[in-house]
Write the structure tokens for this entry.
Amino acid sequence: MIAIEEVSKRYADGTVAVDRLSLQIPNHSITVLVGPSGCGKTTTLRMINRMVEPSSGTIRVNGEDILRRPVNALRRSMGYVIQNAGLFQHRTILDNIATVPRLLGWSKQRARARAAELMERVGLDPGMARRYPYQLSGGQQQRVGVARALASDPPILLMDEPFSAVDPVVRRGLQEELLRIQSELGKAIVFVTHDMDEAITIGDRIAVMRTGGKLAQFAAPDEILSS
Ligand code: ADP
Ligand code: ADP
């Protein structure tokens, strides 16, 4: 589990992005951070994988302060998916997904076999393996992004507005795929969105943030709907 304890982030220009946030994120569940643009969701996510250093407070993963772990080992334990997938444009789909296993020292053959298996898991046609990102639709590229994040089988998945740039019908399919992946693989998924409908559709727990980086509510979807 991820324990965020009294964490604040003040950027160099004085902006307080996150203000004394405390949040318990359980394993084997989808926790959604939701709130208006600029309320500190991305900053919170980036503090979990140490792309942003907190100004104060502590973040623990399974009891261990993340500052005590080498940053590479920490990031290897966390898949990261962003809007517009962030794919390597000059590499094929298969090689995009195989990148992380290759970095972990797997042979090219084994990494590609793993990538092919992940393509199937996220619902990508095997015929797309040799294409390049620009030859795929936005929804397909997001599937590649999810497959790439799953490649090292990390216990934690951090997802920053992963489905926001695709149309509503495709988004619905991606949400269902994610719920299926979660039920099969049992990750701790932290999912950022500004869309409350999306939060309620996929979240087991929803952290509602408000402007100024404060937590307004942390509850199950049915409690949020009835409040
Ligand atoms: P959200 O993801 O909810 O849109 P962010 O975490 O991206 O919010 O941003 C929270 C606040 O911090 C915003 O006011 C944003 O402009 C500001 N911010 C984000 N990154 C930086 C940065 N590198 N330097 C200064 N301010 C930043
Ligand atoms: P996102 O849509 O992922 O929240 P943004 O467009 O808010 O991204 O930010 C893009 C980049 O600019 C990020 O690296 C973020 O940290 C940085 N950033 C955002 N707001 C500010 C700001 N006010 N000052 C400096 N950098 C910022």
Notes: The chain has a mean pLDDT of 93.
